[in-house]
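Sanity check. The docking grid for zinc ion depends on where the pocket ends up, so I'm generating a full predicted complex first rather than guessing from homology. Inputs follow.
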Amino acid sequence: MIISIILSFTAGACAGSFLNAAAMRTVADRKWWGSERSVCDSCGHVLCSLDLAPVFSYLLLRGKCRYCKASIKPRHFAAEVAVGALSAALFWGWGFSAAFGMSILVAWFSLFNSLTDFENGYIYDAWAIAPGVIGLLMRIPAGTQAVISGLLGAALGFGVIALIILVSRGGMGWGDAMLMAGIGGAVGWKFCAFGLYAGFLIGGVTVVPLIFIKKLKRKDAVPLGPFLAAGSTVILFTGSALVSRFGEFIGSDPGWPW
Ligand SMILES: [Zn+2]
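Predicted complex below; grid placement will be based on this.
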């Protein structure tokens, strides 16, 4: 068990490193496959595998580039530690199971979409919808009910955000609708419903105080994708308990794979 958790942390840290780099290259409209090597943000020196070892290289180099001594952006380190810890926690919660696979799929893609949304306020349709497509394919062997739950989840995630866009005329974008469609297709409609609720809740408790202390103006554009992604990620841990708690309204079976 301990070894599996360490392995999932390491795999998660590598994924965090990769997702962070891929998101930055996507935002900069650069290819992130093929032969382009990772370079230092400051001096442009090509980084070797020792420099790229997730988490450890940042600690060993004390957050500075080995070649030019410029500070490495802490966000690289933060993404590695966050995704590593998240992946280990999901393994702790679900063990080696379909639910763990589905959780990793949603958590990793959610981070990627949050990063691009933070960086330039844009969620890329293909990356938003990808976990839904992969999730629905994973659902096929589990039977018709599992696929229907995924399709309903995608429809619910897209529908709720689309309704808000049409009613409020602004604030949320179609990227947010695609994001929740992708998450809903993977997690199913019950988890998606709780994910939406948790996302709005996290967004509200974050944004309202910022407006109150005047760090934000009411008209400022706030990327909402990261809050929705965070809410859905929380539900990966708490969804089953919530479904059985509120099962009298929506049925107490959380549905495959949970
Ligand atoms: Zn450098």
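Relevant for the grid: The radius of gyration is 19 Å.
Also worth noting: DSSP finds eleven helices and no strands in the chain.
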